[in-house]
Design goal:
The chain is of the alpha/beta class. The chain has a single domain (2-386), classed as Aldolase class I (TIM Barrel), CATH 3.20.20.70. The chain contains 15 helices and 16 strands. The strands form 5 sheets. Strands 6-7-8-9-10-11-12-13 form an 8-stranded parallel barrel, surrounded by 5 helices. A two-stranded antiparallel sheet has the order 1-2. The protein is globular, with a radius of gyration of 20 Å.
Length: 387
Amino acid sequence: MAEWIGIGRRARRAYGFEEIAIVPGKITIDPEEVDISWEIGGFKFQIPIIASAMDGVMDTKMAILMTKLGGFGVLNLEGVQTRYENPEEAIEKIINAPSDEATNVIQKVYEEPIKEELIGRRIEEIKKGGGIACVSSVPQRAERFGVIAKEAGCDIFVVQSTVTTIHYISKGRSSLNFKKIKEALKIPIIVGNCVRDDVCLEFMEAGIDGILIGVGPGTACTTRSVLGVGIPQITATIDCVHSRDFYYKKTGKYIPIITDGGMSRGGDICKAFAAGCDAVMIGSSFTRAYEAPGKGYHWGMATPHRNLPRGTRIKTGIVSSLEAILYGPAHLDDGSQNLIGALRTAMGICGAKNIKEMQNAELIIAPSIQTEGKIFQVFQRTGMGRQ
């Protein structure tokens, strides 16, 4: 229900991860016996986690490793991997820049033109290592880069921008025809980002295979501050899940919803699934892996924007291997390691045998869930007191 916020104007209440809790089920299940696999576009993955298309998160080596660990990662075709023969040197400039100069340095690094021959080379490197080759571009370059990527052996193509819609009005640029690019590439296409149920429905009707949900929740993203645009992730996910379920009932076609951003702990991921998503996309948590190209640093995809940066560089630090972040063992008490173990345990507590059953877990509004009974943790800044 919308509430009055002034004369003649109502606003709908929306909820994020910190305000919601999951209710335990009537039965419990051994965490090792729950099924957390999911499917998209004919591919089946052991874990419902995707590594985001950010340069501090993903390079060809990380893409291969994510595949071996049961998921997959997205390589940004407009990042340093396709601008530089040796992207490590460009990343070194970014991570060594003083804090007050970081944005300017990032902007200069990304002024280097994209070299189309590197698109095919990076995809070939991933495929040669046995990885799922999933790459992304903004809508303006999707048609051109999609063809190059397909010819190089791309498995999944992602069209991603701050906010993407079917309808785009511009005198200087033509709108991307999503139906046309889907028919041309004939590989699974994921589109993002989105927070509206009606926009999700239009993407599904255009033949898109998966939709990324979230505007501005990322750790390094400043979109909500710069533009004032965004919807908290629990509400955004539930809204878009409504379109998925409506479309499925109407057509029999099931299009996965992927909650993208705002999740740094196992509990956040569990809540995203309880809100109805089929998979999650993670960024900052993976920058803390030894293998991450950002070496403990993370910056938003829109940080390089010359006129209006909508991201910043942050230091996340390095804590463990990617395998430990996903599967444990956990040596930290903040929920940032063994994300898969957390999901399995939460599903077991909720009596959910699979992701579909977890999507039906009961949720409650619980703003005190982070602080109730945690006075010593708060004062001693340990455990949940760090959050």
